[in-house]
Amino acid sequence: MEQTSTVPSDRYAESSEEHWIGRYFGVHRRGSTLRTEVLAGVATFLASMYIIVVNPAILSDAGIPFSAALSATVLISFLSSLAMGLYARNPILVAPGMGMNALFTYTLVQGAGLSWEVALGCVFWSGVLFATLAMFNVRKAIIEAIPASLRYAITCGIGLFITFIGFKNAGFIVGSDATLVSLGSFDASLLIFFIGMMATAIMVVLRFNGALILGIALTTLLAAPMGRLWGEEVMVQWSGLAAWPDFSAVMQVDIWGALKVAYLPFIFVMLFTNFFDALSCFMALSESADLKDKDGNPRNLKRSMTVDAFASMIAAPLGTSAAQTFIESGAGVAQGGRTGLVAVTIALLFLPFLFLSPLLSLVPGIATAPALVLVGLFMLAPVAKIDWTRADEAFPAFLAIILMPLTYSITLGIAFGFLGFVMIKLGTGRWQEIRPAMWVSAALSVVMLVTTH
């Protein structure tokens, strides 16, 4: 008689671990495996690890030391992603967000003249308000209050603003007395940036995992001979491989100094941007990977929003701009990731970089610039969702998009977008379409314009 094999299958082998990992995260219940979840975490990490270098590069323009900003970036990414995995049990990365760091540096610090300590205080209070909204679950009322066209426009405008910063940091675009802006001098630096940008774009088109970080590495290697072969500024200088984390920015937040009436619009803009970025990210990922509950809503949405909110709160004491959900989490979802084990994997992959600030400080500005340009491309996707045939919706959205890069201010773009929406609805007799929250937003916009300009 033929004997039945007693060798366990792969499926059975994995189910033996169900009692301590699989059961907690619901790995098999979600139709996944431990191997798939870990590989999905690696995919998301590769797609988003550029933030480890890019965020400190932007925050250093605000006066925060690069090494301190890097330590804060890694630490908040580790803690918040770990919380997303263990508490919300969703396969989503939380890290300092692009757009929020630009708002922090170029609008609050360089534009409005706040110290970076006070600007961190604004980050903290926006996180407090975010946490309050998350706990009381008022997302539906807020979603209905702000028109979708403006929400899409703000994401697009921030994307264009970040792209403009990338071109500026590379010297590709410079100031001009005759034409306001112009192409920079075509030298070795500009050539290296252009090659790096095109190489990064090609890798994105070919869907390379980690295309942005590979682009940063390639551009850094190309920039290394500068100053040695071409007689220009030395951009890449070796300062070591590893060092203890720099926590000099920890607890430097000026919480009480940020509580001024003049700063309320900045706090509101941070809250608005972070809240809707988080919500739109959760909704997009839930649709693409069927991460929904029995009612068809994004799975564990309240817990996920709570994690995002508290990540924003603790980002400020750690010394970085607000943390938020990353749409790059879609890379892991596309690999089959379905549970919080993905986020836990991402968190653990961030942690070693806490000790690599000397190595990562090699990266010059022209090497992070291609990543900024490509991030702008990704953030421009919602422009197709705006109904451009309705001028009463399209014009305020257009104002928000175009004024962010042209005024070099995210808050000004948002302010004029809100004011444009309210004034057009009033002027066309459609005042009933203005929700109470939009009246408040328009009033805060006026306050911001009067107090800061």
TrEMBL record:
The keyword Membrane applies. It holds the Pfam family Xan_ur_permease. The keyword Chaperone does not apply. The chain crosses the membrane at residues 38-58, 64-86, 93-112, 118-138, 150-168, 188-206, 211-231, 261-285, 306-327, 339-356, 363-383, 395-424. It is a multi-pass membrane protein. GO terms for cellular component: plasma membrane. GO terms for molecular function: purine nucleobase transmembrane transporter activity. It comes from the Bacteria. Keywords: Cell membrane, Membrane, Transmembrane, Transmembrane helix, Transport. InterPro entries: Azg-like (IPR045018), Azg-like_bact_archaea (IPR026033), NCS2 (IPR006043). It is found in: Cell membrane. Belongs to the nucleobase:cation symporter-2 (NCS2) (TC 2.A.40) family. Azg-like subfamily. This is Permease. It comes from Halomonas heilongjiangensis. The lineage of its organism: Bacteria, Pseudomonadati, Pseudomonadota, Gammaproteobacteria, Oceanospirillales.
